[in-house]
Write a structure and sequence with these properties.
One of its GO terms (molecular function) is 1-phosphatidylinositol-3-kinase regulator activity. Residues 163-213 form the SOCS box domain. Pfam families: SH2 (PF00017), SOCS_box (PF07525). Strands 1, 2, 3, 4, 5 and 8 form a 6-stranded mixed beta sheet that branches. This protein is α/β, with parallel strands linked by helices. The chain has helices spanning 5-11, 33-52, 61-68, 133-142, 175-190, 204-212; strands spanning 55-56, 75-80, 88-93, 99-109, 112-117, 150-151, 160-161, 166-167.
């Protein structure tokens, strides 16, 4: 059976989430507060990245284009940025068929690191931001204000709206994980009041599994 480009890539890549080398602490005794907060933010996000199934820890822009080439509009992957100073990049198939990569930047304020899409400084305060990269991607998928995010590509197309619809997984997700995401999707998008996992009439092991990953993407 012929493997897809995604399967070929996943066969040769590790499932571990790589933390960008520039973010790892040095052996100096002093680490400034902003750098320390950024390291903590990356560490707290790493488990979700391992669980989500659509984070590519080591991938080039060219490989992202190859994987997304024949995928539907709005398909995307999250990958580690090739630029040392940045953390992550979203590569997405646009309405014109091209694959565009958008950096995810980190901002430090009020003692906390948040992540947001790369933009000009004058509109940074108006961007969606989250303390976790997976949470940010979920917000970008579900928010009704996505149409305000527009950009141009290198082929001359301007005023392209950002449409994130469905991530491309490294490999087929397990039925267990799929059920977990569907529970969270129903709870967060359908019910007027989200479910309290602790109050569900299910075994403690299942409560723990649901609590380990609370996103529906």
């Amino acid at each position: 059976m012929k493997m897809t480009s995604v399967e070929k890539y996943s066969k040769n890549s590790s499932s571990a989430v790589a933390i960008p080398k520039c973010l790892l602490p040095s052996f100096n005794l002093y680490i400034d507060e902003e750098r320390y907060s950024l390291i903590n933010a990356i560490n707290s996000t790493s488990y979700k990245l391992q669980q989500c199934g659509w984070y590519y820890a080591d991938m080039t822009r060219e490989k992202a284009k190859e994987i997304l080439h024949d995928k539907p509009i709005g398909s995307f992957i999250l990958r580690q940025s090739s630029e040392a100073i940045r953390n992550y990049t979203i590569s997405v198939k646009t309405q014109y068929g091209a694959v565009v990569s958008i950096r995810i930047m980190s901002t430090y304020k009020s003692g906390r690191i948040t992540f947001h899409l790369d933009c000009s400084r004058k509109i940074t305060d108006r961007m969606l931001e989250e303390g976790c990269v997976v949470d940010l991607v979920q917000q970008l998928i579900t928010t009704r204000t996505l149409n305000v995010y527009r950009f141009s590509d290198n082929k001359g197309h301007r005023n392209i709206s950002l449409q994130l619809k469905k991530p491309v997984s490294l490999s087929p997700v397990s039925l267990k994980h799929l059920c977990r995401t569907q529970v969270h999707k129903y709870s967060q998008l359908t019910l007027s009041t989200p479910l309290s996992i602790d109050k569900l009439p299910i075994p403690l092991t299942l409560k723990g599994y649901l609590s380990d990953y609370t996103n529906f993407v």
